[in-house]
Amino acid sequence: MFRLAKLILLATATLTILPVGEAVAATLTGKPPIVIGHRGASGYRPEHTLASYELAIEMGADYIEPDVVSTKDGILIARHENEISGTTDVANRPEFADRFTTKTIDGRSVSGWFTEDFTIAEIKTLRAKERLPFRDQSYNGLYEIPTLQEVIDLAKQKSLETNRTIGIYPETKHPTYFDNPAYVNTVAPGPASLSLEEPLVDLLTANGYTTPDAPVFIQSFEVGNLQLLNSLTDVPLVQLFDASTAKPYDFVVSGDPRTYGDLVTPTGLSNISDYANGIGPWKRLIIPANTVDNNGDGQPDDLNGDGIITDADQPLQAPTSLVDDAHNVGLLVHPYTFRNEDRYLAPDYNGNPALEYEQFFALGVDGLFTDFPDTAVAVRNSVTEVPEPNFLMGLIVVPLLGLLRRRQAEV
């Protein structure tokens, strides 16, 4: 600990004699915000496929985001949910018809086919499909379901080919569920646990992701598993936030009364800084929006007249102090999810997704998750003058301060 503190003091002293770029982004580190390919370039290719990740990298994404679930034999794969009928062709595969079942996932009854009931060999026979009906369906049936190792391999390969570091940003999905054999072994007997944390850390360690400045973030909507991960690895951790009235599922199980709204207070953020390096809030926690009832009929107004109530019918409100509050306790801020389609854009943007990116970049976010990395990169580059890279601040001081804070919290 003493050596770590000395290194921080030395790096800080060195910063005082180094020139700093005149125009720096209003981020925690002073570096331009990162662009995270949300499930890859999922606005253009079926999500969580190598094709989607590769396209995101080609479009300039700094990080690619694989959501992580487990197979029956304990292999980590990239899927947004462990129920896979919406993103694969499993429902059309007669050899797996008997795997259809109903389970309780984070308190909800879900019917379908689940990754934990398939071996990796069986998963590899499936093909991905586009989840959203209004997006391009022409790539359905072309791509396998990748393992997390394959995603890492792609990131490393493309880092060499492009001469820039491509990071990975895995999310542990439903960690409380996967910890409990009573949940996962409902079709056939399986292992005592399919816990995600230990195999994830083992895999990252085997691939050289071990330090605070490694090009990786681990994210989760739950709290307990991030606190566990904090004891297992020194790589950066990110606490995700859903709507302020929702709860982390591990809080639901333990009876903890706190909501995400409690976690985003200055006190809550200070507590998070003891085990995490950043937060990933739903973007409406930064810039709220709400429906209106201008005609007084007691129903939300369909402002764009398309017959459904979407983000396009919810005007923006004044920004909150969340970005500043998080920065004040040393936390990075990476909001989600940014999309180009009109249905996802507040009416204030008049159908122009660039305006949304500009607004969030102006508030000082440190990065963001997007289905359309090309749009995000173009806007980021247009509004951010890249300063001379301050490697000691960006790559040493901030990560080590986070590590020191986390280690002090363990004492």
How many strands in all? 13
Radius of gyration: 21 Å
The proportion of residues in beta strands is 5-15%
Question: CATH class, please?
Answer: Alpha Beta
Percent of residues in helices:
25-40%
Integer count of domains: 1
Which strands sit side by side, in order, in the main sheet?
7-2-1-13
- In the CATH hierarchy, the third-tier topology is known as TIM Barrel
| H and E string | HEHEEEEEHHEEHHHEHEHHHEHEHEHH
The biggest sheet amounts to: 4 strands, parallel
Number of separate helices: 15
CATH architecture label? Alpha-Beta Barrel
Distance between the first and last residues' Cα: 11 Å
Looking at CATH, the homologous superfamily is Phosphatidylinositol (PI) phosphodiesterase
Q: Tell me, what's the shape?
A: globular
The overall pLDDT average reads 89
Descriptive report:
With 411 residues, the chain is of the alpha/beta class. The chain is built from 15 helices and 13 strands. A hairpin with a 5-residue loop joins β3 (67-70) and β4. The chain starts with a helix and ends with a helix. Mean pLDDT is 89; it is low at 1-25 and 386-399.
Task: From the structure above, extract its key features.
TIM Barrel; 13 strands; alpha/beta; 15 helices; four-stranded parallel beta sheet; disordered N terminus; 411 residues
